[in-house]
Structure formats: structure tokens, C-alpha cells
Design a protein that fits this description.
The structure holds two protein chains of two kinds. Chain A is mainly α. Helix content of chain A is 67%, strand content 2%. Chain A has eight helices and one strand; from the N terminus they run αααβααααα. In chain A, α7 (138-145) packs across α8. The N and C termini of chain A lie far apart (47 Å). By secondary structure, chain B is mainly α. Chain B has helices spanning 3-11, 23-65, 69-93, 103-122, 124-146, 152-197, and one strand spanning 18-21. The longest helix of chain B is centred in the C-terminal third of the chain and has 46 residues, at 152-197. Classes of the chains: A mainly alpha, B mainly alpha. At the A-B interface, α1, α2, α3, β1 and α5 of A face α1, β1, α2 and α4 of B.
Chain lengths: 174, 201
């Protein structure tokens, strides 16, 4: 694969899966600065991983793997090492950056609370919760994490309960 | 709201952010990251392996020039330590986990590397300090023996030399054990707990 092909794939992934990457980043880091830093790290790793992509896994499964592995290894303090280098990304998650209908919708408020609840989970549970909410099958989740589908079922029951406890009030039937 | 409704709300969410990506700058950053990584590895190897081989050359040269077999022995010990480090680096090179591996494979790979690093630093006395210490001890002993007619000053030089070597050795050993306690052990515990959370008990 030459550099042009790699760049073309990267640009396509960026346009097709930007929403997915952003969700994973928002769940992995709380503050806008950390989100921006983690997002940069994810993008760099996604770019570097493209040469190894043979199309045997789905693109989304691949991106989940890269993003989760990056999040596990990422440390807030590591942002320091990038200081002094020009940033290639501007990520604005402030309310002003969002359309007014999005900012005020009750769905958006629930989503915001969900992000906060997911960040309270352990890293592995947070990964599972994200994939579950995105509607991945047990098989796909097993492929991303490298564990058995049975174990995923057991864990998801516990995670749903944990999320329900944290979102109590808004989601009584959860 | 039940879980299915929550899922729908989640999946219908807006990206919730305004994103501006400078692709050219991103490519520069990727290249810079790769160059920085290669440079870090190169200078680490140059520092550790290069120092061992330079010392090996120096002591071998001294040994040949002055017909001092004890100096040659120190050179041989340094060469052995340098070779051990090179072989270890080569063996570990292929074991790096890839970012696109499954989470479990990636964590297992990282854990193997951390455990190996801990093993190296915990045993630094046996593979690094001891071989050179034995050779140095013999070399200092020989020098002192040759200067035995100088009386007390020879004993003084012998004591000071040994004290200096012991102090340097203690510093190296302490620094290695400190690195294990401060950064590698916590990292290993973190990786083990992640593996346990993935059901690998």
C-alpha cells in the first residue's frame, strides 16, 4: 500500500466513522483538552494501523480496536509531550458549537448523562457499554475484545444494572 | 425509558462537536511521532549498548597495549554485557503488540513486555553489574599488586577505587529498582486488572 492509498483510506474513514471516533473519545476523556488530546492520539494510531488493514475485519470493528487500545494506553499527563508542536485538530464540544435544537433536546441531556455514567465504569466495562449502546452483536464485541460471547453476556447484565443505577430517575425502566 | 429506547437515543445523537482537522498537519504529526519513536529507541540503544561496546574497546586496547590481561578481561565483560543487550533487544522487537490487535491480545502483549522489563531490571545485578564487577575487581587487584612496593599509598588507592566502584554500583542498582517500583510495577498491576476484567483469571 502506498502513501496515497493510505491517505485516501484515512480520509474516507474519517468522513464515514468520525461520529464513532468522537463517541469513543468523549467516553474516554472528560475535559475538552483531554478529549482533543485523546482524539489526536486515536487519529495518529488509526492512520498508522491502515497499512495492516487487510479487510478481514469490518472497518468499524478495526476502529473500535484501535480506539480502545489507544484509550487504555493513553494517560492524561502524556499531553505534555506534545506541547510545542502545532496541533492538527480543533475539537469544540462546547454548547456554542452545537446547533440550538441539539443543545436543548431532552435526548441530548440523556446522552450527556450517559457519557458521564460510562466514564464512571471501569475501562473494560466502558468499552462494552459503548459497543452495546451502538448495537454491536455479541460476536462483534467478542472480536474487538478477544473474549468469549458467553462472558460478554454475563458482563452486559451487570453493566446495564450499573448504568441503570447511575441514571436512576430519568430511566426507571432501564 | 427502557434500554432499547436508550439505545435509539444514543445512536441518534449528533456528533456533538465541531471538528476541524488539518490533514497536512496530521501527516506531519504522524511522521514526527514515528521519527521521534525511532530516535528515542536509537538513542536509548546508543547510550546503553554503545557505552558497553566503547568500554569494551577501551579496555581491550589498554589490555593489548600494556600486555595487561586483567584489562582485557574487563573489556571482555563489557563486550558480553553489550552483546546480551543487543540479543535481548532483537528478541523483544517482534513481540510488540499492534494497536489493531484485539484488546485482550494487546493487553497480554503489553504485560509480557512489562514483565520482561521488570525481570531485566530486577536482575540487573546478575547480567550487568556482576560480570563487570568481577573483571574490575581482578583488574584493580592486579594494579594494586603491581604497585605493592609503594606502601600505604597503594592500599589507599585500592580502597578508594573499590569504594568508588561500590558507590557507582549501588547507585545503578538503586535507580533500576526505583524504576521498577515507581513505574513498572504500577503499570503491571494496571494491565493485570484489565486482563482480570476481561475474564482472564
Amino acid at each position: 500500500m502506498n502513501a496515497e492509498e493510505q491517505e485516501a483510506i484515512f480520509r474516507r474513514w474519517l468522513s464515514d466513522h468520525l461520529g464513532l471516533m468522537l463517541k469513543l473519545v468523549r467516553a474516554g476523556a472528560a475535559t475538552p483538552e483531554d478529549q482533543e488530546d485523546l482524539f489526536q492520539e486515536v487519529l495518529v494510531n488509526v492512520w498508522s494501523s491502515i497499512r495492516a488493514f487487510r479487510g478481514e475485519a469490518k472497518e468499524t470493528t478495526w476502529i473500535y480496536r484501535v480506539a480502545f487500545n489507544t484509550t487504555m494506553a493513553w494517560r492524561r499527563g502524556e499531553r505534555r509531550r506534545r506541547m510545542g508542536h502545532e496541533t492538527f485538530l480543533k475539537l469544540d464540544t462546547s454548547p456554542q458549537a452545537q446547533p440550538s435544537h441539539v443543545d436543548s433536546s431532552p435526548g441530548q441531556e440523556i446522552v450527556g448523562r450517559l457519557y458521564a455514567a460510562i466514564r464512571q465504569l471501569s475501562k473494560v466495562d466502558a468499552s462494552l457499554a459503548l459497543m452495546h449502546l451502538d448495537g454491536l452483536s455479541y460476536g462483534e464485541m467478542a472480536e474487538v475484545l478477544g473474549i468469549s460471547e458467553n462472558y460478554i453476556g454475563v458482563k452486559l447484565n451487570r453493566i446495564r444494572k450499573q448504568l441503570a443505577d447511575q441514571l436512576k430517575g430519568a430511566n426507571d425502566e432501564l | 425509558m427502557n434500554f432499547e429506547e436508550l439505545q435509539k437515543t444514543w445512536q441518534a445523537q449528533d456528533a456533538g462537536a465541531k471538528v476541524t482537522i488539518n490533514a497536512d498537519q496530521l501527516l506531519k504529526e504522524v511522521r514526527r511521532n514515528q521519527q521521534q519513536f525511532r530516535a528515542t529507541i536509537f538513542w536509548r540503544d546508543a547510550r546503553e549498548v554503545g557505552a558497553a561496546f566503547l568500554l569494551a574497546l577501551y579496555f581491550s586496547y589498554r589490555g593489548l597495549r600494556q600486555d595487561g590481561w586483567a584489562d582485557g578481561l574487563v573489556g571482555f565483560a563489557c563486550f558480553g554485557v553489550g552483546t546480551f543487550m543487543v540479543v535481548d533487544r532483537l528478541l523483544q522487537r517482534g513481540k510488540q503488540p499492534a494497536a489493531s490487535d484485539s484488546l485482550k491480545t494487546c493487553i497480554e502483549g503489553s504485560l509480557l513486555q512489562v514483565n520482561h522489563q521488570i525481570w531485566l531490571l530486577r536482575n540487573v545485578f546478575w547480567w550487568y553489574l556482576l560480570p563487570i564487577a568481577v573483571a574490575l575487581g581482578i583488574s584493580i587487584g592486579c594494579s594494586s599488586w603491581h604497585a605493592r612496593n609503594s606502601g600505604l599509598s597503594a592500599v589507599f588507592v585500592w580502597v578508594i577505587s573499590n569504594l568508588f566502584v561500590a558507590l557507582v554500583y549501588w547507585g545503578i542498582y538503586w535507580l533500576n529498582q526505583f524504576a521498577v517500583r515507581k513505574s513498572l510495577d504500577p503499570r503491571r498491576q494496571e494491565l493485570e486488572s484489565l486482563l482480570a476484567a476481561l475474564g482472564n483469571k
